[in-house]
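ok so heres the complex, two chains, lmk if somethin looks off
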Amino acid sequence: MSPVRTSAAGQQAERDALLERLTDSVPYNRLLGVRFDRLGDELTGRMAFRDGLIGNPVLPALHGGVTGSFLEITGLMQLAWDQVLAALEAGDADADGIRAGRFPPYPKTIDVTIDYLRSGRPRETFARATVQKAGRRVANLHVEAWQESRSRPIAMLRGNFLMPVGTAGAH
Amino acid sequence: MSGAEQGGGAEGPDRFSVIREAAADAGAEGALMTGLPFGREIGMRLHSAEGGVAVVSVPYDARLVGDPETGVLHGGVITALLDTACGWSVMAAPVKLLSTATLDLRIDYMRPATAGETVFARAECYRLTRSIAFARAVAYHGDPEDPVATAQGAFILDRAPAKEAAG
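and the predicted structre for the whole thing:
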């Protein structure tokens, strides 16, 4: 194996580990059991089903607050991860801090609108966020959650998030 | 059916009645929402649900924190609380319902919740049509005039069928 390959694989393993650490640094992410897969800079949230997430036991259906939380978590994590990636790519002092477990401050939710399209069934749920605008102060996001097929979203969120002071946006 | 369902579904309105009666006896502490698994999961309590108005709360819990630096509750917890409050205000409206489901919910965060404090939500179902209910809610600590967040939403109604005259 060439040294270049080893280093690339090492970088991917490091980023996977950092993403897991970032995810688990938020207690509420752990309560809902949310995990993230990553492809390039895109995160996919995954939330396994368990009985404690039910809102209506008769159907049964996921609680709307669980689905809404999962959407918001996915959006916040994408924004937080974008900051981490930017620092790692720049390789500056922030990158050293991140490697030592000091993540940038979290963005704060300003407002969200959630549309519930379909009942959340007792099965694994996925979500992906699209950053519509990464401004210096405010980021605008669209997040979709789905279960059996991405073409049949169960809920969507759009929202504005206040970026922490001192972190640069892309635009 | 869509979204985030509340209420009894096929079992009729019994689940709602049971929790509402529990709330009536609960006093200042509120009643644990035993018929609502996620409500029980996060320790949500129902204080009242009557005349289209519902009050619910979530006591502070380290498992619900969204920002480990500040200990502030995650926005998703506030979303769950406001969604539940709105849904219960609809179920408590003067109309016979089997269940209701959230169509959409808009939430504005005015300030972070204070770490360590219980968050209350008071919701009001302010308009009913044949198939839709409109509700709004405020999340707060001690004073509803100093809100943590406000919400407004539309809910689809699953009305109980009108009883046939007995023969």
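quick notes: Chain B touches chain A through 50 residues (CB under 8 Å). thats all i got rn
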